[in-house]
Amino acid sequence: MIDINNFSNKALLVHIDKYPIDINNSKEEFHDLVVSANIEFIDKIYLTQKNKSIGIKYYIGKGDAELIEEEVKKSNAKLVIFNVDLSPSQERNLELLFSARVLDRTGLILDIFSQRAFSHEGKLQVELAQLNYLSTRLVRGWSHLERQKGGIGLRGPGETQLETDRRLLRARIKTIKKRLVKVGNQRQLSRNLRLKHNTPRISIVGYTNAGKSTLFNLLTDMNTLAENKLFATLDPIHRKLELEYKKNAVISDTVGFIRELPHHLIESFKSTLSEVAESNLLLHVIDLSDDNFSAYIEEVNSVLESIGAKDIPKILVFNKIDQNYNPENFTHLEKDSFCYVSAKTGYGMENLRKIISEKIFEDYEFLTVKLDNSQGMVRSSIYENCNVIEEIFEKSGHNTIKFMSNQSYVKYLVKKGLIERKVIEKLKNSQEIYKTG
Predict the structure, then answer these.
(1) CATH number of domain containing 267
(2) Residues 396 and 424 in one domain
(3) Which residues contact 106 (CB under 8 A, 6 or more apart)?
(4) Cβ-count burial of 424 within 10 angstroms (0-12 exposed, 13-18 middle, 19+ buried)?
(5) Does residue 42 sit in helix, strand or coil?
(6) Which listed residue, 211, 292, 313, 400, has the most CB atoms within 10 A of its CB?
């Protein structure tokens, strides 16, 4: 990627209004992206593209392009940033017209990601996304070179610098993909271990800058980075979350989603996003103070669908009620479990913890098993993987264990032959268990 710092004090922003009327803060989001990339800008230009066809040469019309050209010369800007995705040819044509570097929306997001990646996997994922993005733009870097020259004394089997660069780029992409597969296998081992121990997995998802990391810190008593910037969290963070009935879960803070997230970016982060797709529960954090939250919910749901996480149970967590709270306006969204919280003040956190436990234990059954002295291994396994509510020791040497378990673990016990299906009796009144527990 380019060195943005070389242009940081000479950037000109071009906002093209092309979103539907229900998205009225696209200007603010574009501004926040630039600020998150630590880029200083000298001016902004606003253009309207609604109901206009996209130009093949410049994306915008020739008149608008010349208007920007005049502003670039007047301000002596060295970098022009567009809030839309440009094709390689459009980017190249604009650079020739402006005599300045041009960066589109995807390039800007990739630059932010490159600054936020700290883990080995995160750096590999960002580099893969950058290389995929640059693969169609290599011609720009070598446009001053001719193709392989012919003629007497000049013929040869050699390749041009452009061809060499493409070959090296493909080789690097192949290497990174192999490394990511290896990291993904290691991640899968960790997931298998959690699955073996019947550990619930919870992922925090949502639009970028909705307050996910602040909520994560409050739930886990951690102090991870939480900034008022877009994509403050890039590398997923996993911590233990204590639930009711002496049960623990693993909760993950994930990268925020954004409108029109580039497809190749989702592909590059597939191993990270697979954590979301294999979760038992999603906490969808929504910024209640943003008037466009309904549209953001749809954007997040669209990304969840693309990674195969659409049908995972979720809780809508309406955050920042200290800035805006009017429940009557959101009754149409109450088809899912929901709650109102303020991750900043801590309001509503106890209620959220209760709802999380209810969701996690929604498919659990309250069971009782009678064991003899020779089944100590079964008893140990139940204590390790289930929620034991009560154990009664009898004079005959038998002991009766009342516990909560999901069906997958019960099937595991039966499949392994540790217990027989006939000795499992479903308790009829779980409320009675709570009293005895």
Answers:
(1) 3.40.50.300
(2) yes
(3) 85, 133, 262, 265
(4) middle
(5) strand
(6) 211
Distance (Å, whole) CA 173 – CA 184? 16
Put simply, whether the predicted model's pTM sits higher than 0.70 gets the answer yes
- Return all residues near 171 (Cβ < 8 A) that are at least 6 apart: none
pLDDT in tens, 365-403: 778 888 888 888 888 888 877 888 888 888 888 888 888
Angle ∠(223,226,230) on CA atoms, nearest 5: 160
340 and 303 in a common domain? yes
Residue 56 and residue 105 share a domain:
yes
Does 369 share its domain with 229? no
| CATH (domain of 69) | 3.40.50.11060
Which one, of 213, 244, 214, lies nearest residue 354 by Cα?
A: 244
Residue 417 contacts by C-beta under 8 Å, 6 or more apart in sequence?
Answer: none
Q: Alpha-carbon distance 104 to 98, whole Å?
A: 14
Positive or negative, the CA dihedral 341, 345, 347, 350 is positive
Q: Are strands 248-253 and 337-340 parallel, antiparallel or unpaired?
A: unpaired
Give residues with Cβ within 8 angstroms of 74, minimum separation 6: none
Per-residue pLDDT reduced to its tens digit, 85-136? 898 889 999 999 998 999 998 888 888 888 877 778 778 888 888 888 888 7
Q: Which residues contact 8 (CB under 8 A, 6 or more apart)?
A: 38, 39, 40
Type of residue at 308: G
Place of tokens 């005599």: 99
d(CA 368, CA 384): 16
Domain carrying residue 310: 199-360
By DSSP bridging, strand 101-103 and strand 314-319 are: unpaired
